[in-house]
Amino acid sequence: MKKSLFYFCLFGCAAISSLFAQPILKPSIGIGSLPSDNDTICYTPFYLGDFDVSGLQVGDTASDFTLYDLAGNSINLFQELNSGIPVLMIAGSYTCPVFRSQIASINNVVNIYGNQLKVFVVYTVEAHPDIDTSVYFGHVNTTSQNINSGILYRQPITYGDRKQVLTDMLAANNLLAPVYIDGPCNNWWSFFGPAPNNSYLIDTTGIVFSKHEWYDKYPEDILCDIDSLLGTNGNCIPPAFGGTFTFNVLGADTVYGAEDAVLTVNGEFVNNTNMATLVGVKRMQNNMPPGWTSSLCIDVCYSSTTDTVTFVLPPNSTQPFHYYFFTDIGIDTGHAKVRFRNIDNPNNVFIEHFFGITEPANGIYHNNLKKLAVFPNPTEDFFTIGPFIANDFSEMRILDIVGRIIKTAKVAPNEQNIMVDVKELNAGIYFVMAMREGQVLQVIKLVKN
User: How confident is the model at residue 310 (pLDDT cuts 50, 70, 90)?
Assistant: First the structure.
């Protein structure tokens, strides 16, 4: 018995002493006294990089800081850790749809671990402000989720503005964790980010025990991390996969809009089974005109450079999908080919083509959209395009998927319809362009069987 107690104290007591040792932090990142509501928010540089490599990493020592809540109450990292309780801090903003979707997870952590863990949110720069440029994309990206939910906020100009957005967020959401506000010069965001919804689990010595580039996003599991730190068990239950899913385009896979705007294709993943599904998404082609970019938005709105994504689709659930075309000045067409695959079932796969097409500001393109058609579509041998309006169109072009001109035909002033032979074309997707004097007036997608 004494020997057992000796070994327990040799190893168990060492772990406990490590857990409750006095923290040794790096110098404070600043902020100090309570900011004034009139303090101007400092210039916030764009961050277009990987959230996994920004900020601190596992094993790094955290820096001390003091932040304040809406009532002016402060939190100090050293004091919290010195009380013998680890800290979980999570970045967020009201305009970040991912953060809003994780409020239930945050509340669950608060309910499970109670006094064993200090959980709080740090309110940072708006991830997807309305009208203003997103610091994570380099252009305006309000997101369909925010537009549909009416969560339309500009990037705050003053500390008081930031407090007001937070006030609205707390009024609309039941968040159990306290929220502290980053300072006017975004000290916390600059040091522990930049990222819209990362998180840090810090042990009582001040060492980063775990870091999530996106809080509690697969393959990370916050309950498993906390159990591992605290030496508890029973809450870490890895997901069991085995379900299937369907993918549906909502509306059309081809979207039209004004130049220098954001065009959105909407869809959804549906899991009607009683098991979770691990879905792999791969952007196989990304044919964008000069000045255009595009991005995937699923459980997370990913950067324009992200081509491969894996996410968990819970049982009996629906996950919205958005494909964004960020267009530039000029009339042009963008195309992306995206594959959705069940990681555990290779037969459960969908491949979709998405198209974004800009139209002239004079409205000619839009007005003729209902008057001009290609039929039959899909086709095998021939198709007819028309009816033309006198003197509106002078030329028809067929382009392949990468924008090369395959075929052209002139439109006579009084010609109503043109029949086009496409027997020699390979099966695939093409664009039929109706033009006048070199200007594209309408684009129609053609499928060749």
Answer: very high
CA gyration radius, the chain: 27
Q: Can you read off the two tokens belonging to residue 82?
A: 């010195």
Q: How far from 201 is each of 80, 300, 304, CA to CA, in Å?
A: 13, 21, 29
**CA 433 to CA 281: how far, in whole Å?**
31
Contact 41/184 with Cβ under 8 angstroms?
Answer: yes
Q: Tell me the C-alpha distance between 103 and 100, whole Å.
A: 6
- Report the predicted TM-score, pTM, of the whole model to 2 decimal places: 0.75
DSSP of 105-173: HHHHHHHHHGGGSEEEEEE-S-SS-SSSPPTTTSS----HHHHHHT---PPPSBHHHHHHHHHHHHHHS
- Of 67, 16, 308, nearest to 187 (Cα)? 67
d(CA 402, CA 172) in angstroms, rounded, equals 46
Which of 427, 371, 418, 370 has the alpha carbon at shortest distance from 397?
A: 418
On the question of pLDDT at 101 being above 90, the answer is yes
DSSP assignment of 190-222 equals HHH-S-SS-EEEE-TTSBEEEEESSTT-TT--H
**Calpha distance 47→136 (Å, rounded):** 5
Domains parsed from the chain with CATH numbers: 18-230 (3.40.30.10), 246-359 (2.60.40.10), 364-448 (2.60.40.3080)
Contact 384, 377 (CB under 8 A): no
pLDDT in tens, 121-138: 999 999 999 999 999 988
Edge to edge, the sheet with strand 66-68 lists 74-76, 66-68, 179-181, 118-123, 87-92, 199-202, 208-212
Average pLDDT across the chain, whole number: 87
Instruction: Tell the burial category of 275 from Cβ atoms under 10 Å away from its Cβ (0-12, 13-18, 19+).
Output: middle
Q: Which residue reads 């006579």 in tokens?
A: 412
Complete edge-to-edge strand list for the sheet that includes strand 418-421:
373-375, 382-386, 418-421
Q: Are 87 and 118 in contact (CB under 8 A)?
A: yes
Task: Tell me the three state secondary structure of residue 289.
Answer: coil
- Hunting for tokens 């530039």 — which residue is that? 328
Q: How many CB atoms lie within 10 A of CB 194?
A: 23
Which two tokens mark 118? 């200090």
Lowest mean pLDDT segment, chosen from 38-52, 143-157, 363-377, 398-412: 363-377
